[in-house]
Amino acid sequence: MIENTNKQIEAEQKEQTLLESNLKRSDIYIHFHQAAKNQTNITAAEWNDLQAMIDQTYGMFTKRLYALFPQISEQELRICLLLKISISATGIANLTLRSKQAVTSSRKKLYEKTHGQQGGPEKWDQFIQAF
Question: What is the domain extent for residue 50?
Fold first, then answer.
């Protein structure tokens, strides 16, 4: 029984690794990373494509995030999507047309709202990466 459980866990981990690898090779992932560096404007369709790709890769990420925090704004959701694909705070500021300080403040507030305790923006980043 334990052996079967271990095999199932191993298979799920391999599948997740494959999904993440596919995400990192996708056109939308590459586009967002380049746009973050080049300060390129992102269309609504591109945001939707990124969200769909993240949801596909990370088991309905957006739905789980809304379940955790139903009042999340579109701007906050976009910050979370960008964190999930490892975009830096500066890159997030470029893509969301906000200052780096505003992005940092949003990350800190998201952690405090969802966890009910003080925490820096890095704690939110760690949470999103593991979520």
Answer: 2-130
